[in-house]
Amino acid sequence: MTTPICDFIDRYAGSARVRMHMPGHKGAGLTGCEAWDLTEVGGADSLYDPQGIIQESEGNARGLFGAAATLYSTEGSSQCIRAMLYLCALAFWEKRPGERPTILAGRNAHKAFLSACALLDLDVAWLFPESGGYSLCRCDIPPGQLEEALGRAPQAAGVYVTSPDYLGNTAGIPALAQAARRRGVPLLVDQAHGAYRRFLSPSLHALDQGADICCDSAHKTLPVLTGGAYLHIAPSAPPVFRARAREAMALFGSTSPSYLILRSLDRANRVLAEGYPERLAETAGRVGALRRRLGGRGWRFLGDEPLKLTLDAKGYGYTGGQVGAYLESQGVVCEYADPDYTVLMPTPENTEGDLSRLEAALSALERRPPLPTGPPPFQRPAFVMPLRRALFQASRRVPIGEAVGRTAASLAVSCPPAVSPVVPGERISENTADICRYYGIGQLQVLEREGGAAL
């Protein structure tokens, strides 16, 4: 597997050229990586109009992921999410010019989804979880629920789901893709946590399961620098997706993309092509064995992802935050913790010693009687005004108690992708306040004046 970006940057870094171009560090600095940090000098290509080394490298990635097109992002999946929605709107307007598109979306959407819908002035029809028991991150969407929602949405431009979610639960992508296809709308998947799934046997990647377009945060599960991500387009996608993909990415991206991140994405192609599936299978086996051993000690797990350990902390007698703090005291830093769960994300880059250290720490923690408390049942908030109108009005931050009865002007939770108890344009209820208190959210952004005109 070639690594054209790495090769060019290495040659440039090793040359005696005088850098009379950006960046200002001129290849020298305090961190040690400056020599490889470039701008679009001759031969370095251009991310949003690639004709050379970036085009070749993205072609390598496209082949590895089996996509019709793969584009690099140096600004994470957030940039890709916004681009996906723009492309979805373009495809809708090609068929129905002048009409307002609606995106059907699982409620556990990342804040980048909300900001993109506001900027593009898209309506959102939320798909709420139907299974009992509210969780901040989980949103199960049966295909029957999607079929019914599509039947009530004549302006549907696309279906947007998050899979895997932050807790390691995966959606039934094949069935959802079929439901969307029967209605003639594309399926968009935020697969930020699932880039590695392409290299399982068999592949569990969203494209291979029927998605028309998806994003992968390479940096979350692959050996790539933070900010590295992919936008993948399937052969089944509307033609405008491929035709306008560069434009879509450029619309939401910096004109100064990081060459350090591009170098990392390029180098990852060789890693993925040379024995990575075997390493991944070995790691998944070790993680599965660890899960079984810890299960024998009373630990219970959530989710079905092979490379995610989501501990049911309350079932073991602790809050998720307490387990996370304990693990950190033992030198193990978790990915995420909330009142109920503690999430750990091993990859093939973790050694057997890392997993042994985790196992020793969890095995040494005294088991207590389960904690009976859980989050309040979720009640759907009332719709007051469109998302865009709520976001583009004067607002202020107030304590939870003062927010009840007001209209939300921002997300109650911003990260991870979450089933937010309220989104901009919805009425904050007592139930909203109770859920926020449970998750430690003490303030909310509300409209300065109810019913005011957008700024």
Overall residue-averaged pLDDT value: 94
β-strand amount: 5-15%
Instruction: Let me know the largest β-sheet.
Output: 7 strands, mixed
Work out the helix count. Answer: 15
3D architecture notes:
With 455 residues, the chain is of the alpha/beta class. The chain folds into three domains: 4-273, Type I PLP-dependent aspartate aminotransferase-like (Major domain) (Aspartate Aminotransferase, domain 2, 3-Layer(aba) Sandwich); 281-364, Aspartate Aminotransferase, domain 1 (Alpha-Beta Complex), CATH 3.90.1150.10; 387-447, Molybdopterin biosynthesis moea protein, domain 2 (Alpha-Beta Complex), CATH 3.90.105. Helix content is 37%, strand content 13%. It is built from 15 helices and 15 strands. The chain has helices at 4-14, 53-65, 76-95, 111-120, 143-151, 173-182, 218-221, 239-252, 259-273, 276-296, 320-329, 352-364, 387-391, 400-403, 430-438; strands spanning 69-73, 102-106, 108-109, 123-127, 156-162, 187-190, 213-216, 229-233, 301-302, 309-312, 336-337, 341-344, 395-399, 418-419, 443-447. The strands form four sheets. Strands 1-8-7-6-5-2-4 form a seven-stranded mixed β-sheet, sandwiched between helices. The mean pLDDT is 94.
